[in-house]
Amino acid sequence: MRDRVADNNYVKLVHSASLMATLVALLLLIIKSAAYWLTGAVSILASQVDSLMDIGMSLVNVFAVRYALRPPDNEHRFGHGKVEPIAGLVQAGFIGGTGIILFYTGVGSLWSPKPLTSTSVGIIVMIISTVATALLVGYQMYVVKKTNNQVIHADSLHYCIDILMNLAVIVALVLDRWGWSWADGAFTIAIAAYVLHSAWRIGFDAFQHLLDRELDDSTKAAIREIALGVDGVAGLHDMRTRQAGQIKFIQFHIELADDLSLINAHSISMQVEHKLQARWPEADVIIHLDPLSIVEQEVKSGYHF
C-alpha cells in the first residue's frame, strides 16, 4: 500500500493548503485589528502581530512550495526539494521574532497594566479566530498525512500554537473582567515562551533536513523488507537514505550469488527498484550489486559494515 499520494494530487493538496493559510491569516489579521482597536488588550495585539507574521510566512510558503515542486534540471539534478527546509528555517526566524516581540509587549503590560474596554467583543473575536484556525489546522494535518510536506507541517505546528494563543487571550480577557488586570500581560509572556520554544523545534527539524538526516527507522525497515523479499537477494548492507521535498533518496548494496550472469543480476536489482518505487513513487533509488564472496572477504577484512 502506498503511503504517499500521486504527484498530481501532491501538487494540488500542497498548493491548496498554502492558499488557504494565506486567506485565513489575512481574515484573522483584519478582525484582530478591529478587536485591538476596541479593547486595547496587548494580548490581542500580540495575536494580531502573530497574524501579520502568518501572512508573511504564508507568502514564503507559497513561493517555497512552488519552487520545490519544480522538476530536476541540468543544474539541479537532484531536484529543488531542499527549498522546503530552507523555508522551515525562515519560518523559525519569523516565529522567533514574534516570540521576542510578544515577550517585551507582555513585560510592558505586566509592569504597567491598563484597564481594558469592550472585552466581550474581544472574546467573541478570539473565539471566531480559534474556530477558523482549528479548521485550517485540521486541513493542514490532512495534507501533511497525505504528502509529508515539511513546509505545510511547520505551518500547521505554528497554527497549533495560534490556537493555544487564542485560548490564552480569551482566558486573559475573562480574568480582566473579574478585575485581574495583570492577566493580560502574564498570559502574553507565557505565550511568548511557548512561541520561542516552537521556533527552536521547527528550526532544528529544518536544519536536520538540510544536513540530510536519515529517514525514520520504520521506513528503513520497510525498505529492507521489500528488498530482501525479492528472489535472489541474499542480503543487504550499507543503506543510506535522505529526503528532499517529496523525493526520498535511497541507496544500498544487495548481495547476490557469485554465479549469476550480469543480465540476471541486473534483472534482480531492477525488481528491487520497481518494488520500492511501487511503494514510494517519488523515490530515487540507487542499488550497488555485490557478489556474496566479495562481501565475505570485506567482512573478514573489517571493511564491510
TrEMBL record:
Keyword terms, alphabetized: Cell membrane, Ion transport, Iron, Iron transport, Membrane, Transmembrane, Transmembrane helix, Transport, Zinc, Zinc transport
Cellular localization per UniProt: Cell membrane
Domain Cation efflux protein transmembrane: 19-211
Domain Cation efflux protein cytoplasmic, chain residue ranges per copy: 215-291
Gene3D superfamilies hit by this protein: Cation efflux protein transmembrane domain (1.20.1510.10), Cation efflux protein, cytoplasmic domain (3.30.70.1350)
BP-aspect Gene Ontology terms: intracellular zinc ion homeostasis
Entry's Gene Ontology molecular function annotations: cadmium ion transmembrane transporter activity; ferrous iron transmembrane transporter activity; zinc efflux antiporter activity
GO annotations of cellular component type: plasma membrane
Topology versus the membrane: Multi-pass membrane protein
Main location: membrane
Catalytic activity: Cd(2+)(in) + H(+)(out) = Cd(2+)(out) + H(+)(in); Zn(2+)(in) + H(+)(out) = Zn(2+)(out) + H(+)(in); Fe(2+)(in) + H(+)(out) = Fe(2+)(out) + H(+)(in)
Family: Belongs to the cation diffusion facilitator (CDF) transporter (TC 2.A.4) family. FieF subfamily.
Subunit architecture: Homodimer. The subunits are held together in a parallel orientation through zinc binding at the interface of the cytoplasmic domains.
Name of this chain's protein: Cation-efflux pump FieF
